[in-house]
């Protein structure tokens, strides 16, 4: 399929790197940190209990689903308070979490493909997560980073896609959103008027009968190859 792509918006977690290993590392790093700085908290909230507390905080605070950092701080604050720890530990505990959160391991294809893509068109990160591209070391490959926390609403809300297109200065129909999640990324972007590219690494089945992705690849390399082949240039 040929159509013009003048800019790309790109999801991060589970598109450039898998999140599951990061989540497991975070759980262990936080537990080790609590063992050193607040043993009472570590005792009351071992890894599984802290995970359950975080999941409950998420369920109980739907108004904060766009702000995963606020939800994490809420979880840490409750754990510290209920275990009788000093609330002065909240900021350093959050920093221990955030350092671990930004230790990512890219999919084998992702970084090289991202560099190829960014050399062709402007790329903006549009994510519901709280990764920091500067800490990760790839900020120079992006025009900007738009997170749901900063925007005030999470994908698939159309407003975050509209805001990205406005900042890019590109018409919606000439922006391709790329991501792993069928609903939050691809269907959400397409309903907002963007083109949608599904990075389907796990061979999931597409279930949105009312629309189909404009593009689908099992790696980000597939998209880089498509761009290099000139398929985004309707005059070629």
From TrEMBL:
Gene Ontology MF annotations: hydrolase activity
Keyword list, A-Z: Hydrolase
InterPro entries: HAD-like_sf, HAD-SF_hydro_IA, HAD_sf, S-2-haloacid_dehalogenase
Domain of life: Bacteria
A Pfam family this chain is assigned to: Hydrolase
SUPFAM superfamilies: HAD-like
PANTHER family recorded: HALOACID DEHALOGENASE, TYPE II (AFU_ORTHOLOGUE AFUA_2G07750)-RELATED, HYDROLASE, HALOACID DELAHOGENASE-RELATED
Protein name: HAD family hydrolase
The species this protein was found in: Stenotrophomonas terrae
Organism classification: Bacteria, Pseudomonadati, Pseudomonadota, Gammaproteobacteria, Lysobacterales
């Amino acid at each position: 399929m040929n159509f013009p792509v003048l800019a790309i918006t790109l999801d991060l977690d589970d598109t450039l790197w898998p999140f599951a290993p990061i989540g497991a590392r975070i759980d262990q790093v936080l537990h080790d940190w609590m063992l050193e700085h607040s043993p009472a908290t570590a005792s009351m909230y071992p890894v599984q209990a802290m995970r359950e507390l975080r999941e409950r905080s998420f369920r109980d605070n739907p108004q904060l689903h766009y702000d995963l950092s606020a939800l994490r701080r809420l979880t840490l604050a409750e754990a510290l308070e209920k275990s009788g720890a000093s609330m002065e530990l909240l900021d350093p505990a959050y920093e221990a979490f955030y350092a671990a959160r930004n230790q990512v391991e890219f999919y084998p294809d992702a970084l090289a493909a991202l560099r190829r893509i960014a050399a062709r068109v402007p790329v903006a990160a549009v994510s519901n997560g709280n990764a920091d591209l500067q800490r990760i070391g790839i900020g120079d490959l992006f025009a900007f980073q738009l997170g749901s926390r900063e925007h005030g609403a999470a994908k698939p809300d159309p407003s975050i896609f509209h805001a990205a297109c406005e900042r890019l200065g590109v018409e919606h129909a000439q922006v391709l959103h790329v991501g792993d999640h069928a609903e939050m990324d691809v269907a959400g972007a397409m309903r907002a008027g963007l083109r949608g590219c599904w990075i389907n690494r796990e061979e999931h089945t597409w279930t949105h009968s009312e629309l189909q992705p404009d593009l689908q690849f099992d790696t980000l390399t597939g998209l880089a190859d498509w761009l290099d082949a000139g398929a985004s240039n309707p005059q070629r």
